[in-house]
Amino acid sequence: MQTPGEQALTTQLSFPGDPRNETHALYDPALLMSVRQDEQGRVAAFDFVLAVSGA
Q: Degrees (nearest 5) of the Cα angle 50, 34, 22?
């Protein structure tokens, strides 16, 4: 993601309960997505909060 005039942000999100989380070098529990089931399948979400200079 990228705000106008700023560098792009690249990050890695994780799925809760994935057995590889604990052994992955980049795993951070703060970057776990919330996952819910709906009528079409599983839906994952994560809220990004960006500080915008001048705001």
A: 95
**Cβ 12 vs Cβ 26: under 8 Å:** yes
Query: pLDDT band at 33, cuts 50/70/90?
Result: very high
Which element (helix H / strand E) includes 37? strand 34-38
End-to-end CA distance of the chain: 18
pTM for the model stands at 0.69
Distance CA 22, CA 25 (A): 8
| Nearest-5° Cα angle at 22, 34 to 8 | 60
